[in-house]
Design brief:
The structure is a single chain. This protein has helices at 59-62, 67-77, 93-96, 119-125, 144-160, 175-187, 202-210, 222-232, 246-252, 254-262, 279-293, 313-319, 346-355, 365-376, 384-399, 420-428, 448-466, and strands at residues 2-9, 14-21, 24-28, 36-37, 53-57, 115-117, 129-134, 167-171, 191-196, 214-218, 238-240, 270-274, 302-308, 359-363, 407-412. The chain has 467 residues and is α/β, with parallel strands linked by helices. It has a domain at 115-141 and 249-428: 3-Layer(aba) Sandwich (Rossmann fold), CATH 3.40.50.1100. Strands 6-7-15-12-13-14 form a six-stranded mixed beta sheet, with helices on both faces. It has a four-stranded parallel beta sheet with strand order 10-9-8-11. A hairpin with a 4-residue loop joins β1 (2-9) and β2 (14-21). The longest helix has 19 residues, at 448-466. Mean pLDDT is 93; it is low at 1-19.
Length: 467
Amino acid sequence: MTGCYDIFAKSKITFRKVVMSYNAWFQCINPACKERYPLSTIIYRCRNCDSLLEVQHDMQALAHRSAKAWMKLFEDRYKSTEWPYGSGVWGKKEWVLPEIHDDNIVSLYEGGTNLFWADRFGKMVGIDNLWIKLCGNSHSGSFKDLGMTVLVSMVKQMITDGAPIQAVACASTGDTSAALAVYCAAAGIPSVVLLPKGKISIAQLVQPIANGALVLSLDTDFDGCMAVVKEITKDETIYLANSMNSLRIEGQKTVGIEIVQQFDWEVPDVIIIPGGNLGNVSALGSGLIMMRDLGLISRLPRIVVAQAERANPLYRSYLKNFETFEPVQAQKTLASAIQIGNPVSREKAIRTLKQFDGIVVDATEQELADAAALGDTTGMFNCPHTGVALAGMIKLLKMGKIDRSEHVVVISTAHGLKFTDFKVSYHEGTLDFPCRFANKPIELPPTVVAVKEALRHALKQRRDRDV
């Protein structure tokens, strides 16, 4: 992909078009190494020092276009019908995968999700400007679509160029497998997903099944599945799709860019994100830093990572000022997608938090469930992981670490319809704790008298509560 800018040649009173090429590459995150590899390389860790990789861009080339020109370009493309730029990811193609051919892009119009003004919920918990970024309003129902469009597109181009890839594989707690399966199905590429048996919702399990993936249910947890998939993808015919593959991060970084764009290029004060394998944390930071370095924004928000108390290794490390990091055996949590005790992307996440004056918080099972349910009463339909983020926000408000006047964005990572079992259990009151906002159906005889009496009682309760 090339970009163009015009230089006015005064002596000839003419315009001269200069073609500027944009490019990107894998680079080792170890400051003492910084080894580089082409993006078409089948590689997940540095061959020199075994550190994780990240995608780096030629920022000098990108800087030839002014900040205002980038903003206008992104605005012109946003939700357009011009292929592939209507996608929230591919509308920023030059910042993501600049050299990929448009014919190899596999897009399902991801991104462009609603930034929901949670006014009622904010007033309930004591914050004046609260917004929820509904990343679950996407094709497979989670933010994972943002990264998977990039990874599967790159795989398609690699196969076109002769790479020996026969299938793409991932370990998953549900959402990654759904996104991989649907994008591979659209591309006509076989997908393989390794899932922890009995530890994901039925709705999440059926997605890769419906999309034709080879679904392998392993009697272990996510960390066990991850260990297996890392081994099988040493064979270059099976390509790894987990977030340790930094192509995923390139798509996911657009969420931060899009949030700022939706605020008319103003930066919120705080962004709160649930944390599991932690790739999304560094992705969020990456997009925002790129905006700053290219002059689109002048300051960075604080980033808050919220973890479930039963799977909180990053929170424990935060309490020690990140001096050490010790993996934990993740315990069963309602927030199953972040039930991860040994996150692959912890180094990147910690680096990001240090750059963004970051905070880590955790939430108990009751706190996350009640926060999700309370939000639902104001028009949301929260997944349990969004409940973790909302509960973390409420804690930080009470602790005085977030001020009620600040502009706060909570990233909702998946659609609540993927977790109806969680919601049914909550409202039936069958969980292991009191469910403060449970709302059971009232069974009545089919008479007008019975219905009127139920209405009278319910409306009186509401009036009394609102007084």
